[in-house]
Design a protein that fits this description.
The protein is mainly alpha-helical and about 375 residues long. The chain folds into two domains: about 70 residues, no CATH class; about 270 residues, Glycerol uptake facilitator protein, CATH 1.20.1080.10. Helix content is about 70%, strand content about 5%. It is built from 17 helices and two strands. It has a two-stranded antiparallel sheet with strand order 1-2. Helix 11 crosses helix 14.
Length: about 375
């Protein structure tokens, strides 16, 4: 633009360069006299249109309309706002098609990364909250811990990785008949197994880093206490906490798909994740870090006299799988599939009776 207009805006977003006319985008009333006064002549509007079409593929500039009549809004506005729920539902189905078409070799690597990212969020949570409640109380400590743990899903979504809990949304693609049940189960199986591998890699790295020795054993105390609480849950408690957890996790993924820039996506992820962590819900992939880390550190905790022997003896691999991982995984599947994928597909993508009549050719 050789001569910048006061109503012309442009910036660089994560999706690329964006430029737009503020008068058109925000329904400002215009008339021929006003346009002439600001120098918005037909030649100038053509130049603006070319700039917008070059940058974002669509364009809208003010026309010479009668006084006070608002300019019609077109798809140029969509560049500046988040997608509505119906569009998110379509995006989820498209994502399901892409994910199920991913080669197994790539799927394995992306699943390892996602497991590691969630584990890194768990590391942040543990370190930051190891003694925080002493200073700000339990409630605020949970809130801060939830923000810290959000790192994991932010890395998964923005960095690009395959997370089992978020992939519960693949059920929407199955319901829409764009992917098969076999494809969904193939994705879930490989992603779940290698999320575990990624989490265990971080467990090993964190253990040998020796960082858990900091704060006079405070981090060790926090790690082992988290593991003990998780393996001490009843089967039903673990199941229902798993349902509530992945309801929020899949909503975080769902909302992130609506955002058009990195900040929007981060905020959309952070708020639901902070809520689930603060509430104490159970996430199967996060627990693949929390409990194994507790198992590794229980001997150190015993040497420091931080726990009674009976408490430490209850933190075992058997207790982890039977009391926690199995019911939490089942709950995570129910929470994501039923309360997000099925619920939104039913509301926004399920064929109506009229569509069925047209497709089947009968009444």
């Amino acid at each position: 633009m050789s001569e910048k207009c006061a109503f012309w805006n442009e910036y660089d977003s994560i999706a690329g360069h964006v430029c737009y006319c503020e008068l058109a985008a925000f329904n400002r009333p215009v008339n021929p006299q006003f346009l002439q006064a600001i120098g918005c002549l037909p030649e100038k509007r053509k130049e603006c249109m070319k700039c917008m079409e070059y940058a974002v593929g669509v364009g809208l500039v003010p026309e010479e309309l009668p006084a006070l009549q608002p300019v019609a809004v077109t798809s140029a506005v969509a560049v500046l706002s988040c997608d509505p729920p119906a569009e998110i539902a379509k995006t989820v189905v498209g994502v399901a098609q892409k994910k199920t078409a991913t080669a197994t070799s790539s799927l394995v690597i992306l699943a390892i990364l996602a497991g590691a990212y969630i584990a890194l969020g768990a590391v942040m949570f543990t370190i930051i909250t190891n003694d925080l409640s002493v200073y700000i109380g339990d409630g605020l400590s949970r809130l801060v811990g939830g923000v810290a743990f959000s790192l994991g899903l932010i890395l998964v979504i923005l960095g690009g990785a395959e997370l089992f809990t978020g992939n519960s949304l693949l059920a929407a693609g199955y319901l829409d008949k764009k992917v098969t049940g076999k494809q969904v189960l193939h994705n879930w199986l490989w992603v779940y197994l290698f999320n575990f591998v990624g989490a265990l890699i971080v467990v090993a790295l964190f253990y040998y880093s020796g960082i858990w020795k900091a704060n006079a054993g405070g981090i060790t105390l926090r790690v082992v206490n988290i593991a003990y609480v998780k393996v001490s849950l009843s089967w039903s408690e673990a199941l229902f906490r798993g349902i509530l957890c992945n309801w929020l996790v899949c909503l975080a993924v769902w909302l992130s798909l609506a955002g058009k820039d990195a900040i929007s996506k981060i905020l959309a992820i952070m708020i639901p994740i902070t809520a689930f962590v603060a509430a104490g819900f159970e996430h199967s992939i996060a627990n693949m870090y929390f409990v194994p880390m507790g198992i590794l550190l229980k001997n150190s905790a015993m040497a420091q006299g931080l726990f009674s022997p009976s408490v430490l003896q209850s933190i075992t691999w058997q207790a982890f799988f039977i009391n926690n991982l199995i019911p939490v995984t089942i709950g995570n599947i129910i929470g994501g599939v039923v309360f997000v994928a099925i619920a939104y597909w039913t509301c926004y993508l399920r064929p109506t009776m009229t569509r069925r009549i047209i497709v089947n050719g009968k009444f």
